[in-house]
Structure formats: structure tokens, C-alpha cells
Write a structure and sequence with these properties.
This protein is mainly α. It has one domain: Multidrug-efflux Transporter Regulator, Chain: A, Domain 2 (Orthogonal Bundle). 65% of the residues lie in helices and 8% in strands. It has a 3-stranded antiparallel sheet with strand order 1-3-2. A hairpin with a 3-residue loop joins strand 2 and strand 3. The radius of gyration is 15 Å and the shape is globular. It starts with a helix and ends with a helix.
């Protein structure tokens, strides 16, 4: 999963259900054509395709993309190495992703609390 230090450079994930490819591109700092390529290379990445073949990513997809980005760009893995690492980590992934989601939720709740206290 993403190292805690890398989370600071990426924007927080909004509390939406679906994200367009442009939004995911901004959230993960990866160009849209790279996202489309990664869909072909990583079976864990499968956005919902709707009308006009438009892609809609869910929160889980954004987390997977951030993990792929970290493996490729920060840790220096090749596409094949990152694919193998993701397949090997799926069991451990659940706990790590849950922790990351809890941190994100906590941050969002703290922001809401600040607004309510005003």
C-alpha cells in the first residue's frame, strides 16, 4: 500500500461514490492515458463502464491506483513486478486499506467537526 509519507503529497479522496477518469487523474497525479493502460495491465483495476464507454472509478479503484503509482514511481518496480506484488499482497491488502480508509474517514470527520463548532 502507499507509504504514509506518500499520502501527504496526494490530495485526499473526496467522499463520493464514483469518480471520472479526469478526477482520478488529478487525485492520483497520473495522466488519463496511463490509467487506461494500467487497466489492461492490472486485473485488480476494473472501473465501471457506462454509457458511451465512460469510465467511473470507485474509492477502491482509486486506492489501487495509488498503490500502483507508489510501486512504479516511488519504489521502482517494473509493471510485471508491481503486478506480482499486488497479487501477493491481496491478503494483507485488506488490513492496510482498512487502516488507510479509517485515517481518511477520521480526517473527514475532524473537518466536519471543525465546521460544526463554528
Amino acid at each position: 500500500m502507499l507509504e504514509p509519507g506518500n499520502n501527504n503529497e496526494l490530495p485526499p479522496i473526496p467522499g463520493k461514490r464514483y469518480f471520472t477518469i479526469g478526477e482520478v487523474s488529478d487525485l492520483c497525479m497520473v495522466k488519463p492515458h496511463v490509467l487506461r493502460y494500467w487497466e489492461q495491465e492490472f486485473e485488480q483495476l476494473s472501473p465501471v463502464k457506462r454509457r458511451g464507454n465512460r469510465r467511473y472509478y470507485q474509492r477502491q479503484d482509486v486506492l489501487v491506483i495509488r498503490q500502483i503509482r507508489s510501486l512504479l514511481y516511488d519504489q521502482g518496480f517494473t509493471i510485471g513486478g508491481a503486478r506480482n506484488r499486488l497479487e501477493g499482497e491481496e491478503a494483507r491488502d485488506d488490513a492496510t486499506q482498512t487502516q488507510q480508509m479509517v485515517r481518511q474517514l477520521r480526517t473527514e470527520l475532524e473537518d466536519i467537526l471543525k465546521i460544526l463548532r463554528r
